[in-house]
Queue: 2 jobs
Job 1
Amino acid sequence: MDSIDKLMRSPVSFLADAGPDEDIAISSRIRLARNLAGRPFPDAASDEVLHEICDKVGAAASESGALGCPGCFSFVPELMGELDREILFERRLASRDFLNRKCGTRLLVRSDESSSIMVNEEDHLRMQTLKPGFQLKAVWEAINQLDDELSNRLEYAFDEKLGYLTSCPTNVGTGMRASVMLHLPGLVLSGLIGATIQGVNKLNLAVRGISGEGSDNRGNLFQISNQSTLGQSEMQIIDRLESVIVQIIEHEKLSRRKLLERDKYGFFDWVGRSYGILRYSYKLTGEEALNALSGLRTGVDLHMFTKVNVRMVNELFRSIAPAHLQKQAGRELSPVERDITRATLCREKLAGR
Amino acid sequence: MLCDICKKNEATIHIKEIHDGKVKSTNLCASCAAEKEKNGGLDALGFNLGEMLLNLGSLAAGKTEAAAIEPDSGKTVPVPAAVLPPCPVCGWTVEKIGQSGGRLGCPACYKAFTPLINEVLTRVQRGLVHIGKRPRNAAGGDVAVLTFEVGEAKRELQEHISREEYELAAVCRDRIRQLQARLDESRQGGGENGQH
Ligand SMILES: [Zn+2]
Ligand SMILES: [Zn+2]
């Protein structure tokens, strides 16, 4: 089993590389659900079968070189400490459902974290690929290839009529969930986000706010994804999702422009105060920090700072999360200690240290 | 109109969706809509799949009246003649599926519970037939994969033409010709070497 520390030290492609429309689109992600033929789904499988599936998928990944295996990371979450497992969650490599399972789970991760496979989550395989910015087609190409490499060595549960069979009928067919994470402060500040979300919902797409430390706050981050998986091809689903996201990005740009026209100093003030909070606070809750980072990111988009860039902000979004703070500190922290550590981290980062 | 969730407050938020040409409307009060927003996103489709299956399952068992299932649309739900037996492969019952939040026990459950699955798919999906990717080792192998690839390439060709990208369209047309030739070859039984 690999160590979390090693994972945290290797460069992360989605944080390090530039992507299209990265001022508004943070990342594009696709996940595919697959199951092995002739085996019960994880919820109904014995421990023995679960372990057998882990071994099979692990071997297929190694032999095919998928994920850069055997040079990939391989974790056994049920054997890891709680803090280390939280790190996997905060890095969006593992879901809560996956981490709560007691037995027979395995997580394979490409060293740059661009692709990964959860073995025995709700389905035998949940693979995902992630790229910075708005580029679903490129993500599809990558995950399609990963899927092909694995399917040459694994026999999937596939039905001529229903497509890829999944544990839950909401995923059957393509087994695909494509999503883009968007930063939408303009729509939130101008009060248009509710209408936008309703409009997107009407198109049968899902919108999720990204919550902070168990609180309601989201740092103005929203994830848009497809809901249905059957009856349309992968490319049709992606095309439709893309066309909606193009419009949301346009609306976000327009509302930022309108906000600037209507109340330029009010808008600048929000950005400036956000910078101030991050640069000079000594105690920062997760919620406050996420909100301020949203302001900072907006300022970067408006070219208001010379020493802050998008990548720095993206990295801060990740490193202020509770488990990351504690891992960095090398010990468990009380909530108050976390707020202090979080503030210190932001102060030092913005001071250029 | 009362809220679909609490059935107490006046519904102020009305969400309409179109599924296979049929309009489905959801009506919520402000507080239920906010609650929905907090729990797992604002998807207008938000529903409890396990509960739905249990309802459909008890309908199959003759425990519930048909009217309780589809109150707003008045759609008649097909009532299976007898209680559905457990899946012969994994042994899961409709009740067990309902308890596990709508998750099935194994791939064979799709066959064992076909009437229920179809009912669920009609509600949550945009179609009932998969038209996307196929695994390379699926039954029908190369023919299936190539048919899919030809379809995708043709769709791409239309896209290039509509964007007046004629050079790309020409490249695409060549690829379709090659794929089609390989497909014809595979159909004649020479499918062994048709993969690359
Ligand atoms: Zn209500
Ligand atoms: Zn079964």
Job 2
Amino acid sequence: MINVNQITHHFVLGKKGNKTIVPVLKNISFQVNQGEIVTIVGRSGSGKSTLLNLISGFIHPTEGEIIIQDKKVSEFNETEFADFRLQHMGFIFQNFQLIPSMTAFQNIELPLILKGMSENARRKTTADMLKKVGLEDFGEHYPSELSGGQQQRVSIARALVLEPPLILADEPTGSLDSETEQDLLQFIRELNRDLGVTFLIITHDDEVARIGDRTIALADGKIVESGVFA
Amino acid sequence: MKVKDQFRFIIQNMKKNKVRVFMTVLATAMGCAFLIVLASVAFGLHDTVLKDTMESGEVTQIQVHGYEESETSYRAINDEDIKLFEDLEGVNAVTRQKSILQEVTFSTEGYEVPAPAVSAHFPSEEKSGLELAEGRLPEAPNEVVVGHHFASSLIPEGQSAEELYDEQGLVKEEFRYDENIIGEPFNLKLKKIADGKESSGDFDVTIVGVMEAPAREWEWDQNVYLTDHLLTELEDFTGTPNAELYDPSEMEVTETSETSYDNVTVYAANVEAVKAVSDKLKEEKYATYSVVNEMKQLNMLFNVAKAGLIFIGTIAILIASIGIYNTMTMAVTERAPDIGIMKAIGASPKVIKRIFLLESSYIGLIGAAIGIAAAYAISVAVNLALPMILEAVFDEKLPSGLRFSSIPFSLILIAVIICLTVTILSGLRPAKRATEIDVLKAMRREI
Ligand SMILES: Nc1ncnc2c1ncn2[C@@H]1O[C@H](COP(=O)(O)OP(=O)(O)O)[C@@H](O)[C@H]1O
Ligand SMILES: [Mg+2]
């Protein structure tokens, strides 16, 4: 599913003549198989988010290649990557990243609109999705009118609405209390089991890390451990 | 993403900042209206001039003055030339007139007037669309048609000039001939010189028709139009071509007395045919004059004026475009986090760009629509009010049919194209900026 091949990444700070190079990832290689849940753990600043952003195509790797579903995405241009994200990836962010001026319904509908689905089909799909995440009564609520857990469910619904085979999550429980965290983990397990969705989840929470079939531990931009989380 | 959805999207976005969008639309509308109203003056005056010319009935006419035998010498048009003209494609009729080259006096029952006499080929005149105010065209050789002012030029015999005319040079009301002139028998008096002695001859003519008044108010027509046949009789009497007053025995006859005309007008079938016919005539070395050809220069002048005014109007739209640029830049900045999220979940830069371009062109389009409506209203108001104001201020009647402002469809089209082009161009940079928004920065609310 995902094949990360000898990725090295550094950020360049400052302007010409006064450049600082911040090395973040060093020669990272790993694979995620279809239907797997892989968690990535590591201390703050270890490069977890950077790794996920590279896989998501939000930034370009300094070196190395990333192959997702047999596509060399690290060579995609911006438009190609955007299309690829729409077709193949769902995203769950720590702070939900909902559009505040849109209702829960509209936020979930957005990927369908981008894909060019007809209005009727969109309505139905979105309504089904709202029900699936248990928010059928909250469709007309704006994000500011929802609790953190509800907002995260909206964002999950948005990530799932196009039924992508892969979901990337950066600290999905970071803003949730432990009870809603449990709900979310349960939901992830069900999706994985019932629909075979592949998950790559970044966390620094042991509880979350444990749902992974495999866990990769990062430290100072290197993989220090890989295996079942203990 | 479907166009319909993009559209719904921008409507939603525009609703978020109604006042700003409204102001921008207003500025665009003002620029657009300014352009249209400004240029409409050139269009209006041009229309007025064109209409005036068209209505004068002269547009389809081509006057032929002569045939260019060499660089410096012309000869008059003869029957052979007339035949050639009549056979040209696009020619409706060829009228030809010959003037009688001496003063002819017409008299009836104590009234008389010296009037220019002209012979005409009436079938051609009729074909050319000649219309009479009264009566009919001559059928018998001694029947004549008179000009519109002929009757009012008749004066009682033996009156002194001081008493006869008013200060405008017209015959005073009390001396006017006040009977119906149609069917009236007249005496035509003509002089000749034979063997050094001058004598005069009388011919009986009957007026069967009166011409329409000339197209222009200041034109005066007291001509008498004779048949070719009567002219021949007169020529026989004087023994000279065109019944000119000289002794034929003293003149060397150089040419065979071939008929030549001094007023030849070719009538094209329609305005479009005028150019072709007149070009053909020029090619055949005839000296011609047509209003349409003269109009070309005038049209050119008006077109330059129109272009100039449209250019000035465009500047107003350019100024409005600064507002659009500003509005769009602010919109992009405000929506940067949303754009970042959309890009993250898979909106391609192209879609983002299109949404913003659509928004700026939508503003431009609404602005143009409102501007056009306003321009129409202003145009109507100007056409109504300006003549009244001018008449009040200068105390003089303006020519009827004068239009200050006219908005043809082409002007609307030009304005819309300019407006849209300018607004799209001004939205281009903000739209490009929107595509360049960094997803991660936007999601961290760093923009
Ligand atoms: N845009 C950036 N510019 C410069 N340095 C960055 C940038 N993003 C992240 N870093 C640096 O890279 C390192 C790893 O960051 P990150 O991947 O966010 O770590 P994690 O998610 O594991 O906490 C940090 O030291 C951080 O300061
Ligand atoms: Mg992080």
